[in-house]
TrEMBL record:
Belongs to the MEIG1 family. This is MEIG1 protein. Essential for spermiogenesis. GO terms for cellular component: nucleus.
Amino acid sequence: KKSEVSGVMATAHINPKSIHHAKTWSDEVENLYRFQQAGYRDEAEYKQVNQVDTVEYWPETGFVKKLQRRDNLFYYYNKKRECEDKEVHKVKVFVY
């Protein structure tokens, strides 16, 4: 099990400059929704915390396929859109 200190230190040096909420659905918003459901800001934070180089994507759609949560359980996602219109405004978009 990786130490939690290394996870905290890894995220310390890349803080977002600003944040806003998504207004309309897009492929980017869909993937952010999936990362945020699993407990991460975005792909950059996911890669740092889990110390992985790649994330599994569906080749057909480009959407995230599988993510490991912070408690080491996994989320598996469908090829189709999962972020409904009523959920779009909850997605946080970080600007670095």
